[in-house]
Amino acid sequence: MKKLMIVLLVAIGCQQVFAQASTWKHGSHSYTQKGTLTADKYDRAATGTVTFTNVPSDYKEFEALYQQFLGKTPHGTAALMVMAMEMYGRNPQEGERCIRLINYPTNVSSVLPRLKDKLQAKADDSYGQRYLPAAVLKGATPQNGYAPSLPYTVEMKASVNKHQELQFSGEGTVMYLYVMGKGWDTEQRSVEIILEPESQLYKVFNCPSLYTGCKRIRGKWAGLK
Question: Which of 100, 198, 202, 203 has the greatest number of beta carbons closer than 10 A?
């Protein structure tokens, strides 16, 4: 049995940086993150990776995952948005709770209408794309029916845009990152993450690239675990 190495680097202020692989488990579900993305400082070479065996089963698991583990990093929070989108596709009421939990208030009103159109569309609605959350998972392409590699992996890297301090609506440091995905011609999907003063948890500030329609599927989507 392979020994699971869990490395937690020292906290920077109230932020934690999981530069090496660290794992959190909930029952049989396993979530691992590593990376150097942080609101503490801008680093163009910073990257982040989140792998997971399953999408959270319900809001209770999602909330614990956010508060205890993935919400402590920008890349973990971005990956949670992908999971929340999939949960919305399965159960709109529960998925909405997840989205409200991890999103800055102004982003919630932008996200929910688009997800309803894309993920809750009728089977004969050509605008609907139930497979959209899978389009950023490693190994998923329109050619293979958006069937990602296992375990599921979300890969991210720093944007060319440097951090900014929020000035017009509340306070906080907004950072920009790219979520990589093969579902679009532009594989770098821009996501904005915010860390508010005195908070230990990041939130999604803006993410239209994640719910912008991806390339149409070829074949039938098998779903996610």
Answer: 202
